[in-house]
Design a protein that fits this description.
The structure is a single chain. With about 160 residues, the chain is mainly α. The chain has a domain of about 110 residues: Arc Repressor Mutant, subunit A. The chain has eight helices and three strands; from the N terminus they run ααβααββαααα. It has a three-stranded antiparallel sheet with strand order 1-3-2.
């Protein structure tokens, strides 16, 4: 399987695309979007709208900045998503009474009801993994993302 890599250097650059971790993640993302398409179509949402709603199911209300940080989106990318979800009747925006500079995003009754519809779609079966596998993959990918978000470490050769 990994026969083209040296046993002495297991993290050497792959020779084949099929051995590339970045391509495996990229292609898994494409497959995820394709697998979720029927569920998202049934809900009438795009994937970014769907994950925004999920974040609001966890906690509502939330400040726009907090929501953007959780979703790894800047305000200019999040605002159109919020605009559309508000037009669809799933959320409301209001100024924070404690800090008028902050905008709070809250789910409406329709936004909360959407959760039941989403849960009935049962997207977990689409993956074909048992809970332990899902948790393992999720933890590994989260660790990878965290590592990739860190500033590059200087090697001792670069510091000299």
């Amino acid at each position: 399987m990994m026969q083209t890599r040296s046993k002495d250097h297991p993290f050497a650059a792959p020779v084949k695309l099929s051995e590339s971790l970045c391509f495996a993640i990229y292609s898994a993302n494409l497959a995820f979007v394709k697998a979720y398409r029927p569920i998202l179509d049934e809900l009438g949402l795009t994937y970014p709208q769907y994950v925004t709603i999920i974040a609001l199911w966890e906690r509502s209300p939330q400040a726009v900045g907090e929501l953007g940080a959780k979703l790894l989106l800047k305000t200019n990318a999040l605002t159109p998503i919020l605009n559309r979800l508000q037009l669809m009747g799933y959320l409301d925006r209001q100024r924070d009474p404690k800090d008028k500079r902050r905008i709070l995003i809250s789910l409406t009754g329709n936004g909360r009801q959407l959760r039941e519809k989403a849960l009935s779609a049962d997207s977990a079966r689409t993956m074909g993994l048992v809970l332990g596998e899902v948790l393992y993959v999720q933890e590994a990918i989260s660790k990878l993302r965290t590592n990739l978000e860190r500033p590059p470490q200087l090697t001792s050769a670069m510091r000299d």
